[in-house]
Automatic annotation (TrEMBL):
<protein>
    <submittedName>
        <fullName>Looped-hinge helix DNA binding domain-containing protein, AbrB family</fullName>
    </submittedName>
</protein>
<dbReference type="InterPro" id="IPR007159">
    <property type="entry name" value="SpoVT-AbrB_dom"/>
</dbReference>
<dbReference type="Pfam" id="PF04014">
    <property type="entry name" value="MazE_antitoxin"/>
</dbReference>
<feature type="domain" description="SpoVT-AbrB">
    <location>
        <begin position="15"/>
        <end position="60"/>
    </location>
</feature>
<dbReference type="GO" id="GO:0003677">
    <property type="term" value="F:DNA binding"/>
</dbReference>
<dbReference type="InterPro" id="IPR037914">
    <property type="entry name" value="SpoVT-AbrB_sf"/>
</dbReference>
């Protein structure tokens, strides 16, 4: 799996448009970008080129109807890696 490095212009092979206008994104690229069934893209014409821009889902804010207790604010380091 790729890291968060910038992979602009990295090639993943070729794709061919079929008779129904469908294009398959190479599996390695789908895996690297964690693309799943149903991922939506904006299709952008850029001169004579086409760009697919992934539509990311809206972030949701979750709230609780009561006040947060102190236990909700543990040290992130301790919570992640255990005590010192």
């Amino acid at each position: 799996m790729s890291t968060s490095e910038d992979h602009t212009d990295e090639e993943y092979g070729t794709a061919r448009l079929n008779h129904r206008g469908r294009l398959t994104i190479p599996k390695e690229l789908r895996d690297d970008l964690n693309l799943e069934d149903g991922t939506e893209f904006r299709v952008v014409r850029d001169g004579g080129n086409i760009r697919l821009v992934r539509e990311l889902p809206e972030l949701e804010t979750l709230t609780r109807d009561e006040e947060w207790g102190e236990e909700a604010f543990r040290d992130a380091g301790d919570a992640t890696f255990g005590g010192r």
